[in-house]
Amino acid sequence: MATDVTNTESGPQAAPKFGTFLGVYTPSVLTILGLIMYLRFGWIVGNVGLPITLFIVLLASSITLITALSASAVATNMRVGVGGEYYLISHSLGLELGGAIGIPLFLCRTLSITFYSFGLVESILSFWPDPVPGHIVQLLAAGIIVVITAVSGKSASLALKLQIPIMAAVGLSFLALVIGVLTGGFHTPEWTATYRTAPEGFWYVFAVFFPAVTGFTAGIGMSGDLEDPRRSIPKGTLLAVMTGTLTYLLIPILLSVSNHVTFEDLAQPGIIWVQVAVLGAWLVYPGVWGAILSSAFGSVLGGPRVLQALASDGLAPRAFSRLSKTGQPTLATWASGALALTAVALGGLNTVAQFVTILFLTLYVTVNLSAAIEKLTGDPSFRPTINVPWYISLLGSLGAVAVMFLISPFACGIAILLESALYLYLRRKAMRTRWGDVRAGIWVSLARFALLQLRNYASDPRNWRPHILVFSGHPGKRLGLVRLAGWFNQNRGIVTACHILVGDLKQEYVDIERQRQDMDRILAEEGMLAFSQINVVPDFENGVIDIAQAHGIAGLKSNTVMFGWPEKPDRLESVLRIMRALSRAGKSTIIARLNWAFEPGQEKRIVVWWGGLENNGDLMLLLAYLLSLNPEWTDAKIVVRSIADSEQEREEKAASLSALIPEARIQAETEIIVKPPDQTFSEVMHAHSQETDVVFLGLKDPSSGTEAEYARWLTELAGGFRTTIFIRNAGEFAGHLI
Predict the structure, then answer these.
(1) Of 120, 92, 86, 499, which Cα lies nearest the Cα of 304?
(2) Nearest CA-CA partner of 113 in 341, 291, 335
(3) How far is CA 676 from CA 607, 672, 673, 697, in A?
(4) CATH architecture of 461-728
(5) Which is more confidently placed, 180 or 31?
(6) Helix (H) or strand (E) holding 9
(7) What are the CA-CA distances from residue 450 to residues 375, 424, 454, 457, 468 (Å)?
């Protein structure tokens, strides 16, 4: 049985929503500029020297920057709900892989609570004159976990608003460090690594530092609590990453040249800032405690929301998806706190840091992989406002795997095995049937498996692709029509060129295979990726309808039927009758009148005439967008035009289209034309588009007996344009494709 996937985010009371600054940038930048910056930056510089420290910062930041870009690309292409990175991955690569990474993500954020609690204890105990036993440190860390869990479970709004004074305290401590260095004299930095107190080597130091740059995901984890996550996540996340990187490049330089401390002092664990900054502990410690608390709050807010999303999708007990009266996932919060308490037994700060590093890196691998696969598969629905080349995302994914292996081959292997086991378990749980025996033939098995999977995932507008059946006749006579179909599907859907022969196979012999091979040869010579087929039918109209209904297999059935412009008026009437029947069968229709007139190098223009009455507009706009992606049309401008009867109607349509185009994430201009009283609609359209390269127009289903009149109207309309493409959107996603 298949898992019933739902994502319920409602509660007894709607929780407050947050903007970019408070909801994303502030928690992200305060988690970045937190524990490691104060407690371990001096230790890193004292062990590996300034050049290697800067290299560590750049290496870690490059991985997080690529991951932030990948996450931003995926986030700008969907309506992001609760769950942060889990939501992005599960809605990009599927529930099984999302769950496989979502469970480690929950553990990762939960361990981060323990990590920051240990850091807060360590900073407080630096005032204590004598060494404190390890069990006392663990008890204090456990007490801090209980307190922050209680506050976060009560009110996310309070936890986020506390970050404003915390940010001020962090900024003041950084300013104190700068003034202390500038007023205390300078010495030459240490250029070579000594590993005075870190005999484990470079990758151990890197593993201790890496959690410092993982804070950028704190804002993503609040996705379900944002007013506009599609806009806030990329803006706030990328700004936080850049702020953190610049700060982390400056701090080691300041510590390396300060006369206040020696390199032996730097190599000792602790808050070395108090020896360098002006007014010392008075300005540094408020920033330390505030930043660590903010990071801990970020983790205890993000982790439960991942668990909440997992529970909503049926991958964790449903009870964890319940919300309190204030809209908080209280039960999930307490579960996270309990797990963080258990993790206190792992030991001290550095031990927990390595666990957090490995889990975060597995997350980065999958986030980058999501963006790379989305880009490579080329779904028409993948139109992010932030475009990241697939190879950049893939590089980030490979870089994260490499760092995991270099830090700890054993931990890397365990992480991969854990997530693979989770994926296989969830995949078996979600699949309705198993695919065939691989020994029956690798290609047959792969094709069968893909078709069975496609059957489960093809019922959503996001997965729609133009599978076009072109009634082209012999392609040698209408190559342009097949080429146009190929432009529309961007070599991602399926194009089939169909040649119909009217006759009777019971009475006549037709060498179908030879003619089909001839069609294949012509298509191959022209570089067109299309299937070909020959059909013999006794009657044109009924034959086309039967072929269109039966064409395709499983999830690859044709959803769009395409005709060229008939040479005879009575044939256009036949096409219109066919269109009416195909509309009832849920198949869209394209009728193309080709008359290419643009010259090489000339600016091309694609105009979509938007009526808004027949649900054709979304398919017209999507096909115009797909056409513009081809090399022959890369410089083409898309213009959406509509006609209004009055100035008031013009303003209403302008507002409607202005809201639609950004939502569709398609670069297009809009223009609303007020029709003069002495002109017809066709005269207005001809006046504004007669020199346009391609004009998209909608079709309606003519009632029975009116086909001849409608055919005359279409002929008159098409006569005033160059290339005219008529669209009838009758598919199951009419009105929902953009």
Answers:
(1) 86
(2) 341
(3) 20, 13, 9, 20
(4) 3-Layer(aba) Sandwich (3.40)
(5) 180
(6) none
(7) 19, 17, 6, 10, 20
Do the Cβ atoms of 285 and 161 come closer than 8 Å? no
Q: What is the pLDDT of residues 629-666, one digit of tens each?
A: 888 888 889 999 999 988 888 888 888 888 888 878 88
Write the CA distances from 413 to 362, 370, 417, integer angstroms. 11, 21, 6
- In this prediction, residue 159 has a pLDDT band, given cuts at 50, 70 and 90, of low
DSSP state letter for 560: E
Q: Using the CB atoms, write b or e for 454-471: b if 16+ within 10 Å.
A: eeeeeeebeebbbbbbbb
Single pTM value for the model: 0.72
Q: CATH 3.40.50.12370: which residues of the chain?
A: 461-728
Mean pLDDT of 542-554: 86
Residue 627, Cα to own-chain centre: how many angstroms?
Answer: 23
Query: Whole-angstrom Cα distance, residue 560 to residue 732?
Result: 11
Report the C-alpha gap between 450 and 442 in whole angstroms.
Answer: 12
Residue 346 burial (C-beta neighbours within 10 Å; 0-12, 13-18, 19+): middle
* Per-residue model confidence as pLDDT tens digits over 350-365: 555 666 677 778 888 8
Q: What's the pLDDT tens digit per position in 371-394?
A: 888 787 776 777 788 888 989 999
């360098």: which residue's tokens?
276
List the beta bridge partners of residue 535. 500
| Polymer length in residues for the chain | 738
Q: pLDDT digit string (tens) for 310-345?
A: 888 777 788 888 887 767 787 888 888 888 888 777
Domain with CATH 1.20.1740.10 in the chain: 20-428
Which amino acid, 58?
Answer: L
Q: What is the pLDDT of residue 426?
A: 74
* Least trusted range by pLDDT, from 65-74, 306-315, 464-473: 306-315
113, 145 in Cβ contact below 8 A? yes
CB-count burial class (<10 Å; 0-12, 13-18, 19+) for 509: exposed
Backbone CA torsion sign across 418, 351, 271, 57: negative
Q: How many beta carbons lie within 10 A of that of residue 633, not counting itself?
A: 18
What order of strands is seen across the sheet that includes strand 723-728?
531-537, 495-502, 468-471, 560-564, 588-593, 723-728, 694-698, 605-609, 637-644, 669-674
Contact call for residues 524 and 476 (beta carbons, < 8 A):
no
At residue 694, the 3 state secondary structure works out as strand
Question: Which element (helix H / strand E) includes 696?
Answer: strand 694-698
Alpha carbon 461 to chain centroid distance? 16
**Residue 561: Cβ-neighbour burial (10 angstroms; 0-12, 13-18, 19+):** buried
Does the pLDDT at position 730 exceed 70?
yes
Question: Please, which residues bridge with residue 605 across strands?
Answer: 637
Under the banding of pLDDT at 50, 70 and 90, the label for residue 521 is confident
Tell which residue, 418, 313, 371, has the closest CA to residue 83. Answer: 313
Rounded to whole angstroms, the Cα distance separating 137 from 515 reads: 83
- CATH of region 20-428, choose from 1.20.1740.10, 2.40.50.100, 2.40.37.20, 3.40.570.10: 1.20.1740.10
